[in-house]
Amino acid sequence: MDLPKHKDPWVNGIPMEFFHEMWQEVEKDIKNLLHETFQEGNMHKKLKVCLQSLIPEPRDLSLIINYRPILVLGSTYMIASKTLVNRL
């Protein structure tokens, strides 16, 4: 898996190191989950949860344009996204 290591845990609290280290144990479950998602054409709502935050730019913070939004996604969502990108 070519996913980032050594980052803070994702929104679901599971760091990517877990998936790197435990891939043999979780691979079947993750693949079944992704297969089900692709067959149904809809991802379970718990997998689509994200945290949204605004990061301030080093400018006048009284203006909203000086903030940039970021989303923190779940690690399973990131695996699904990476899988799709690799297939395109």
Task: Explain what this protein looks like in three dimensions.
This protein is an alpha+beta fold and 88 residues long. It has one domain. It has two helices and two strands, in the order H-E-E-H. It has helices at residues 16-40, 75-87, and strands at residues 50-56, 67-73. A two-stranded antiparallel ribbon has the order 1-2. The mean pLDDT is 77.
Question: Summarize this, please?
Answer:
By secondary structure, the chain is of the alpha+beta class. It has 2 helices and 2 strands.
- What is the helix tally? 2
Major sheet details: 2 strands, antiparallel
**If you compute it from the alpha carbons, what radius of gyration comes out, rounded to the nearest whole angstrom?**
16 Å
| Protein structure class | alpha+beta
Query: What is the helix fraction of residues, given as a range?
Result: 40-55%
Descriptive tags:
alpha+beta; 88 residues; 2 helices; single chain; two-stranded antiparallel ribbon
Write the SSE topology.
Blueprint: H1 16-40, E1 50-56, E2 67-73, H2 75-87
Antiparallel strand pairs: 1-2
